[in-house]
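G., the chain you wanted modeled:
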Amino acid sequence: MTARLVKLPASSSLTRPNARRSSGGRPFSLPCGVPPMRPSEANSRQALPRVNDKVEKEARDARTKHQLQTHEPKTTYEKRIHRQLSMVDVLEKIGISRHFTAEKKSILDAIYSCWSRRDEEIILDTETCAMAFRVLRMNGYDVLSDGMSHVAEAIIDLNLNDTRSLLELYKDSQVNISEDELILNSIRLWSNRLLKERLGSSTAPRTALLLEVEHALNSPFYTTLDRLEHKRNIEQFDVMEHQKLYSYGIIPFFFAKQVICNAHTTTPNTNLLYFLSRHWQTQQDLLALGVVDFSTSQSVYQHELQHLDSWVKESRLDQLPFARQKVAYFYLSAAGTMFLPELSEARIIWAKNGALTTVVDDFFDVGGSQEELENLTALAEMWDKHKEIEYYSEHVEIVFSAIYSLVNEVALKASRVQGRDVTGHLIEIWQDLLRNMMTEVEWRETGYVPTPEEYMENAVVSFALGPVVLPALYFVGPKIAESVVRDREYIELFRLMSTCGRLLNDVQTYEREYKEGKLNSVSLLVLQSGGSMTISDARKELRRPIDKCRRDLLRMVLREDSVVPTPCKQLFWNMCKTCHFFYFRGDAFSSPKEKAGAVDAVIHEALRVLENLFFELSDFRT
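Predicted structure as tokens:
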């Protein structure tokens, strides 16, 4: 028996139920078209209680007053810190932490203070210490890996049956930001080994925790997209494991109104507020909010993807026989990382430019003649005066017209948002790309073999991430001055991101590019070695600079003292994760099917959750 898809009424607004469900009533429905999990999968998880309004209100008020007290007995301190960290971690894992920014910051500030003092309540508990390190570091707090040295030293005394602590330690090792963090390297080696042994045990039942271990080992956090992880965590949310999260509580009811008002609309959904006001005090409500948030965002994503498909046709890009159509993949990477409702413009611009750079890359690789490529490059150099030059072919006309129209469209919007003219910068990004792509064509045509250093200097630009990431930076909130664009930090962020992406691509696409007569970093390393290095050796060797670039980039993104605003730095990291997502274990980007399931998961497929998490919504009249 498969889970059934339950549809909402035609109108999305809900009103209070006018009657209780009778014992013989029809099966209840879930919000936002969410299909329920089969009863057999629900096991012993209990449905939400139904409480008299007055009694519930009095109980809720009492709980809220208790939760807002600043002092708790010392005997509960350690448990309180662990619960606070767990709450923040859960909010992040299901994608709703942004709704509780102030509360989250208050908690993490307090925990950072405890960490800095080396309080025993954190340091002496392995799981709490490990979780504190990871959560604090990934939220921009300056925590050194030396704070984990006592764990590495005490490995002999560590309870090897404590799978949760081992998993937290393994996650710590993944947020390495320097090759000098030897402690994290050590933790990675033995935690990886012990977790694999735990998975391989024939006596170990396949619990939710072990499934999480398996996922963490197979998919390091830098190889995943946030929205895919949110969906997975929502669908596999272990209610029993998180049942005590609210007993400390950081989310009193009065925050619910702000959440619902600001999530995807400026007008409160009073009916949903009514629903949450009655049941906000249980662990299921976190999951309910995650479900509503994710499901609502999917309708936005579907609309945006439809717009992108129309743009491809209007731009005639679908008429180019040599071109791969990758708009869905690029939109996946945008929606998967820039999932906030207010970032719609950034997502669309990211995806349009990404799809267009793929077309241009294919034109330079296989679709265009030498004359056509020179013509396209000359047209870009002339820009507004391009009409002085004739199009060499219809293909050139389609490609250049798409570039010209998109750049001018984005420049108009970005200049309005930024309060200054950024047109010149956006034109320059595309001109630089075409020049560097032309350089690689000339190398290929003349048989010139660049040094690995020369190759990478050119490849940082020719990998074509500039037109994807840099224009989108203008649409994520902060004002970006011209001085920031020219700053060394901005340039280094771009270099690290592009180098990481280029090398990942080279390692996985060597065979195809070799057949096409193209050199890449793998073949250049073999040539430079004089034949002493094999292809396999070269690929392994390139893993070192890939890891280094990723660590260095993450360090810059997390650093507080920065010229480039944090929301802008995040986009460089988003693209780094996207490159790992597509090239971590092969060339998934070139495959039309390999990541199609991910596209559906984020954009089209409804969530599957336990049906007893919600009240009967079929009695809610529209």
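Strands lie at 36-37, 609-610.

Shout if anything looks off.
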